[in-house]
Amino acid sequence: MAGCCPAEAALALAGPEAAGRPARAGALEQAAREIRPGVALLQLMAPGMHCGGCVATLERALSRAPGVRAARANLTAKRLSIEYAPAETTAAAVADVAEAAGFAVHPALDADSAARAEAAETRDLLARMGVAGFAAMNVMLLSVSIWSGADAATRDLMHWISALIALPVVVYSGRPFFVSALKGLRAGRLNMDAPISLAVILAACVSVYETAHGGAEAFFDAAVMLLFLLLVGRYLDRLMRARARSAAAGLMALQPRGAVVRGADGAAWTALEAIRPGDVTVVAPGERVAVDGVVVEGASDLDASWLTGESAPETAAPGAAVRAGAMNLSGPLAVRATAVGERSSLGEVAALMAEAESRKSRIARLADKAAAVYAPVVHLVALGAFLWWIGDGATVREAAFVAIATLIITCPCALGLAAPMAQATAAGALFRRGVMLRDGAALERLALVDRAVFDKTGTLTEGRPAMRAPGAAAGAALPLAAALAGGSRHPLAQALAAAARAAGVVPGRVDEVREVPGYGVEARTGGETVRLGRAAWVGAGEAEAVEAAEASAVWLSRPGAAPVAYLFDDAPRSGAVEAVARLEAAGLRVSILSGDRPGPVAALAARLGVSDWRAQAGPQDKIAALAAMNAEGARTLMVGDGINDAPALAEASVSIAPASAADIGRAAADIVLVGEDLRAVAEAHALARRTRAVILQNFAIAAAYNCVAIPLAVTGHASPLVAAIAMSSSSILVVANALRLAGGGPRTAPGRGARLPQAAEAAA
């Protein structure tokens, strides 16, 4: 529980009853939220979690609890995500399971509270580190006289003075390690603080014994220096973890604490948690929008680049939708709230990032299992070294110091950090590139894909098609077509509706509007069925007349008249050509699988340099095509509409969906692309491969370290002090290697990929 504030540690030792069970249960129930029928999500902070063994212990205990559907632990954020059935258990009961496993937990805090708690923990850690460092320097200074050949009386005096300095420091600076180890033992497990605590206590006790009996050597300097180096390592680890979380921290800094709400009694500042949908908030120039909503008064320019990636300001006028976190640049606005807090776009993005961090890849799960069994093995190795040295004729003191060095040098910090630090850093780097992980395990699958399949409309193209001027028959039927188009989310239908509005066409009256995914929209008018959609679906007999055209088309069928076509042009999405080229250069086979007609698909494929394409593929055709690829052994990446192509996305090994702000939480994909530039897909693939390589490098570092360090310690060639330096260095090396993934910054074209302000900027 290193780094925990004293009050929290005391509460953890006292047990859950000390917090007041009714109030605690109420707070936990409020922290839970329903994510699907019959299943709630509870997010808890576990400050005492700091190694892979802790992660495995918590996940194992929670997964076995009654009513718990899934449990994931995020080592970087020290957060638990538990899915449970409220009908079978309660949030308080779930928290009790975590505490029974030896971990103090509390509901996940808001950004401000979390920042204050983090600062308090950092101050506490710095204080303990400073005391240990000051004591280590003084004890080592006293040791100079001993090393320089002082007589026995002077040596004994220096030892006693060293004991007076070192022993209180061991108690104070070592407390986080001792408390964590004690809680683990109470829960029946050995965490990584157990060997550290045992090593420090043994070093101090042996030194006291040697001093009391006039021994020639005492190792108070090793005990306090060990604590100092361990605390330095944990402090650097905390700083590096904070850097890995910088994207999420900068994102949450965009969320205002509240807003001015206009009511019957006038306008008053209201905390964010008290704002409800329907409330009218007032946003002054220079302020950030606190809620998702619709502008009801005023006009202004908004900077929403954190989400859209567009550097140019958006115009906000009455009727325009605005998103939480957008900066109001010019005029005052009155915004009626439609979504607040975690339901807003900002909240959904933050939830996506948290969810992605908590889901582990196969490699990370294996590392957690290895770290969980590592601590008992460490104790056995240390005990074996002790007995071996005793059997070889060494004194108890000599054998004890070999065992102490073995306990220290074999600490599994590097192994526990190898995968989660790389994954968290990669998630932050991807977010700065406009790519959000919904599933952290998808990163590993993305690194292994060998085939990329793209949808066309809205994916390879901008999804903002422009309708050509209709012919006479099509123009006469435009009111009916506009009425049907208003009931569809398909880009072509939306473009038709927009063109009709721009032409001043009033939509006709239709009833029973129903969208058929992959085919079109149908409705009833005058007792007859009318359809707008694919040529074959509406029964267009003259489809061949425009089949060769390089434009997309939708057809309208109505009673007593021949079907008519509306033609559209859709430009390729920014970066599409380069994205395809980079994926092919990386060894992937690229294909296009579209529901559009052969003419437009062939034209786009030729423009992008893609030779493998298929047109007029309905939802079932796409599923069948991907299933066939998978059956052939291909590992497929599907890039398509996160809503319309949901079945095909689910069939692929890993899926990416471009999504607007409104669609982020609904896109049925492993990875969501926010922004317009498709080069982010190629960058995500490249970063996934780099992440996998870094994780494997980290495992190699941890393995090489243990192969070299353990023999040195067991054979007596590493003192406890050298062991502490080696152990801390291995952990720092692993974390620093993972942080290489954060370098480079955004690589998409300026103004096109999503970008995230720095936390300092956002706070200002």
Automatic annotation (TrEMBL):
Keyword presence, Cytoplasm: no
Cross-referenced SUPFAM superfamilies: Calcium ATPase, transduction domain A, Calcium ATPase, transmembrane domain M, HAD-like, HMA, heavy metal-associated domain
Keyword vocabulary terms for this entry: ATP-binding, Cell membrane, Ion transport, Magnesium, Membrane, Metal-binding, Nucleotide-binding, Phosphoprotein, Translocase, Transmembrane, Transmembrane helix, Transport
GO cellular component: plasma membrane
HMA domain span: 40-106
Single GO molecular function: P-type divalent copper transporter activity
Subcellular location: Cell membrane
Transmembrane segments: 125-148, 160-182, 194-212, 218-236, 370-390, 402-431, 694-714, 720-739
GO biological process terms on file: copper ion homeostasis
Family matches, as Gene3D superfamilies: 3.30.70.100, Calcium-transporting ATPase, cytoplasmic domain N (3.40.1110.10), Calcium-transporting ATPase, cytoplasmic transduction domain A (2.70.150.10), HAD superfamily/HAD-like (3.40.50.1000)
Chief localisation class: membrane
Bilayer disposition of the protein: Multi-pass membrane protein
One of the Pfam families matching this protein, by short name: Hydrolase
Protein's UniProt keywords contain Membrane: yes
Family under the similarity heading: Belongs to the cation transport ATPase (P-type) (TC 3.A.3) family. Type IB subfamily.
Name of the protein in question: Cu2+-exporting ATPase
